[in-house]
Design goal:
Elements (H helix, E strand, L loop, with lengths): L3 H5 L34 E5 L1 H4 L8 H5 L2 H9 L20 E2 L2 E2 L5 E5 L5 E5 L18 E3 L26 H4 L9 H6 L5 E5 L3 H8 L24 H16 L4 E5 L8 H4 L6 E3 L1 H10 L1 H13 L5 H6 L7 E3 L2 E3 L7 H5 L7 H7 L2 E3 L5 E2 L31 E2 L1 H25 L2 E3 L1 H9 L3 E3 L2 E3 L18 H19 L20
Parallel strand pairs: 1-6, 1-7, 7-8, 8-15
Antiparallel strand pairs: 2-3, 4-5, 9-10, 11-12, 13-14, 16-17
Helix pairs in contact: 4-17, 7-15, 8-15
Length: 510
């Protein structure tokens, strides 16, 4: 059980990197390619980590060079596109530092451990990207990792002084035009003739990846009061997104808007199975005996007293069987029974009351996050070998995205996407349904000239080692989706790229 993630990807061969190279669409005659009614001479991309080229849990040079905007800009050059500049990191290590002190972690690499199994590990090395070394230029790629929709219009989001207080973004600090600049303001100041806007993923993603530990702020219209893992109110999103589109189109620029995928379809939520705990019949029977009184006396008693509903009592029942089992967990959305269980008529010891306070078993429709693979089945206390996380020690709520939390995410993303699609229609802009595209990756995959691209972690080719962001091949697929929409909307003939020319996950032992 200690190597759930490693066993999941152990079948991966070393030769995953790429297929035989193929050539991008060549130019055979001058003027063969056209931008149609669009003007691609000054392209600016606006967004978050997906736009920046973030991959493997970090931003690094190779990832940036394979960002979908950079891939697109190369294809735009066939149809009148101009130069495309990015605020490149200083190395391929991936971390950020300030005065030598690390701010963010290095990127993941796939390394073979002592047990012979491959797994993601942080690259050992020292980053040379110090955010105090300000880049004194303007950049076409305005992707800022970590940015939420309302951050793009927040003055001071690139202020070095604001980093320590969490009021500024260290990635934007590197290339903001001033301490008071906004991301959207710096983008518009470049007078783009064409733009792409992909923002809103982080307005729900951090809530999801933290197992719903934030707050659904629907109904709260003041984003300055939000926590880092909160869901952005759909009205706040609609307001700031509309303002961004107005600003980007204000000078007559055309562009493309990209909607928000269903985050629960990414490998971060689909790799670790919900029934991740293998038990033999004897162990399952012993565990059921330990929880017998809880199931048959405590829960019915609490329901009879009206402390919890019969439905909640049923939800909290614990049952193990021989074979694969659902781990036990604490659920912060459940009634905290700790104090009640310590009092009459139960009078349970404090440690047991704490254990049972918000206890339930993971359900089939819950999602266990990727990082849970490192703790599920482990024994954190060497002096207590019976204390196994998921079996006798609950898995923390942060590692499980419950169905109720998934419903909140879906409601918010549905509202965001309605705004994005409506604005694309009203403004006559190209529109990309990234939500449907991701669904195709997760339900059978996408055929390309070198094989099948899927959302399977590591082996599927589309997602990097963080389980959230694409590989170069995944970004190439994204670029093609956007180019197709541009061609369809503006009558352009921009050439696609060959997805098989781009790498997937690479194997490293350092």
């Amino acid at each position: 059980m200690k190597n759930i993630l490693k066993y999941t990807i152990a079948i991966m061969a070393v030769g995953l990197v790429s297929c035989d190279p193929e050539f991008d669409s060549p130019i055979t005659d001058d003027g063969f390619y056209s931008s149609g009614t669009a003007n691609l001479s000054k392209y600016v991309s606006v967004g978050n980590s997906l736009t920046a080229g973030y991959a493997d849990g970090a931003l690094y040079i190779t990832g940036q060079k394979n960002s979908y905007p950079n891939i697109m800009a190369k294809q735009f050059a066939f149809a009148g596109g101009g130069e495309f500049y990015q605020p490149l990191m200083s190395d391929n290590v991936g971390g950020l530092v300030l005065g030598g002190a690390p701010l963010t972690e290095n990127r993941f690499v796939l390394a073979v451990g002592p047990d012979g199994k491959p797994g993601p590990v942080r690259l050992v090395g020292t980053s040379t990207t110090d955010i105090s070394n300000h880049l004194k230029s303007t950049y076409n790629n305005m992707g800022v990792p970590g940015a939420k929709s309302f951050h793009l219009v927040a003055p001071g989001y690139g202020s070095l002084a604001g980093v320590a207080a969490g009021a500024a973004n260290p990635y934007f600090v590197r290339f903001a035009s001033s301490e008071s600049a906004t991301v959207i303001g710096d983008a518009v100041a470049q007078n783009p003739t064409f733009f792409s806007l992909w923002i809103g993923n982080n307005d729900i993603l951090s809530y999801a990846t933290s197992g719903g530990s934030g707050v659904d702020q629907t109904g709260n219209f003041d984003p300055t009061t939000y926590g880092g893992n909160d869901i952005t109110d759909p009205n706040v999103f609609a307001s700031v997104y509309s303002a961004q589109v107005d600003a980007l189109t204000g000078g007559g620029a055309k562009g493309v808007l990209i909607n928000i995928p269903e985050v629960t379809s990414i490998p971060y939520f689909t790799t670790v199975p919900t029934n991740a705990i293998p038990l033999d019949a004897a162990t399952a029977g012993a565990l059921n005996a330990q929880f017998s009184a809880y199931n048959t006396q405590v829960l019915p008693g609490l329901a009879g007293l009206g402390v919890i509903s019969p439905e909640e009592a049923a939800l909290r029942m614990i049952n193990f069987t021989a074979g694969q089992n659902f781990p036990i967990m604490t659920d912060d959305d459940l009634t905290d029974l700790t104090a009640i269980l310590q009092g009459p008529p139960f009078s349970l010891p404090a440690p047991l009351a704490t254990l049972l306070g918000q206890l339930r078993q993971v359900k089939p429709d819950d999602l266990i996050v990727l990082t849970a693979a490192s703790v599920l089945g482990t024994t954190p206390d060497p002096s207590n070998p019976q204390g196994v996380i998921g079996v006798s020690i609950p898995l923390s709520d942060q590692f499980v995205l419950a169905v109720s939390e998934q419903v909140r995410i879906t409601a918010a993303s549905t509202a965001y996407n309605a705004t994005i699609q409506a604005l694309a229609g009203a403004k006559g802009l190209a529109y990309v349904d990234a939500k449907s595209a991701l669904a195709r990756l997760s339900t059978g995959g996408i055929a390309y000239d070198g094989g099948i691209l899927t959302s399977q972690f590591v082996t599927g080719g589309a997602f990097s080692l963080d389980g959230v962001h694409p590989t170069p091949r995944g970004y190439a697929y994204t670029a093609n989706l956007i180019i197709k929409s541009i061609n369809d909307t503006y009558g352009a003939t921009i050439p696609m790229v060959h997805i098989g020319n781009y790498a997937t996950v690479t194997l490293h032992n350092n």
